[in-house]
Amino acid sequence: MLWFRPFVVAALIALGALAGCTVTPLEGTGNVSAGGGSLAGIEFAGPTSRLDQKLRNELLALVGREASDEDASIRFEATVTKTLSDVAVLRGTGRSTVGKVQLTAVWAVIDIATGGIKDRGQVSATSSYDQFNQEFANQEAERDAETRAAKELALRLRPLIIRAKSKPAIVATQSTN
Fold this sequence. Notes:
Strand order of the largest sheet: 1-2-3-4
Distance between the termini: 94 Å
Radius of gyration: 24 Å
Number of helices: 3
Helix content: 25-40%
Number of strands: 4
Structural class: alpha+beta
Strand content: 25-35%
Shape: flat
Order of helices and strands: HEHEEEH
């Protein structure tokens, strides 16, 4: 019975060393501000389409609030477009069995005080869905895929927005002739 004591002692030492360690998530949620890694203080522009609204809702879910900050210094604007494609087609019938939704967001982070653009870009996310013989089931599956793609877009945009907060705004100068 004495042969396993060195293993127990080694395990206790290892546990003692690990007791002081903490784990923090890379993708935090809410208004957690670790080194400026928060989406707090950002106004999210009102949506102009259903897809814009889905992305805005997902970004607000990441922020952890229902409305924009009144003390916001920057505004996030995005326009989302959708591309549908067939991934798998049955032989003989030519009927698609798997569809793919690709959402693309063209976005900008704007300094509210100056109107200058802090950063802008384009991000895409894709989600697939099963297609059935029933039209309503296909519509619902497509909408679910849109929601999953919007969630992925929000996760991809979050670090880009946080990075843009610390950038200086580029103010376009108007030339007079």
